[in-house]
């Protein structure tokens, strides 16, 4: 009988550990603005916000396993085969970063890597979800209510 409270406590702790680390839209806009992403390589802040929503629904801690064995990490779902090193499979590691660093709440590693990604010839076309949900669409509503003073 005394085990039940212990088991309930352990189960609650596991639930907390596995919860998503979400960032609010306007808080993300502020961080991206402070990191000079508005207009970076010709992409508006609204496009960056749309990208983050399309890829991770603003989940900083999201990790997605792909059929090829690679994984996508963080708010921008940066792929381990090309951009970061997950120490599980071969990686080009073009961003010179550990994939786990892309899950940090301060977002600096994710932003730095995303900047490198969009600086290439493909720009935001590196992300399928950006092409499907953001490219060529009116996106100004992503900034509605966000005050970046």
Automatic annotation (TrEMBL):
<feature type="signal peptide">
    <location>
        <begin position="1"/>
        <end position="20"/>
    </location>
</feature>
<dbReference type="InterPro" id="IPR001916">
    <property type="entry name" value="Glyco_hydro_22"/>
</dbReference>
<dbReference type="GO" id="GO:0001669">
    <property type="term" value="C:acrosomal vesicle"/>
</dbReference>
<comment type="similarity">
    <text>Belongs to the glycosyl hydrolase 22 family.</text>
</comment>
<feature type="domain" description="Glycosyl hydrolases family 22 (GH22)">
    <location>
        <begin position="95"/>
        <end position="113"/>
    </location>
</feature>
<dbReference type="GO" id="GO:0097524">
    <property type="term" value="C:sperm plasma membrane"/>
</dbReference>
<dbReference type="GO" id="GO:0042742">
    <property type="term" value="P:defense response to bacterium"/>
</dbReference>
<dbReference type="GO" id="GO:0007342">
    <property type="term" value="P:fusion of sperm to egg plasma membrane involved in single fertilization"/>
</dbReference>
<dbReference type="GO" id="GO:0097225">
    <property type="term" value="C:sperm midpiece"/>
</dbReference>
<dbReference type="InterPro" id="IPR000974">
    <property type="entry name" value="Glyco_hydro_22_lys"/>
</dbReference>
<dbReference type="InterPro" id="IPR019799">
    <property type="entry name" value="Glyco_hydro_22_CS"/>
</dbReference>
<dbReference type="GO" id="GO:0003796">
    <property type="term" value="F:lysozyme activity"/>
</dbReference>
<keyword id="KW-0732">Signal</keyword>
<dbReference type="InterPro" id="IPR023346">
    <property type="entry name" value="Lysozyme-like_dom_sf"/>
</dbReference>
<keyword id="KW-1015">Disulfide bond</keyword>
<dbReference type="Pfam" id="PF00062">
    <property type="entry name" value="Lys"/>
</dbReference>
<protein>
    <submittedName>
        <fullName>Lysozyme like 6</fullName>
    </submittedName>
</protein>
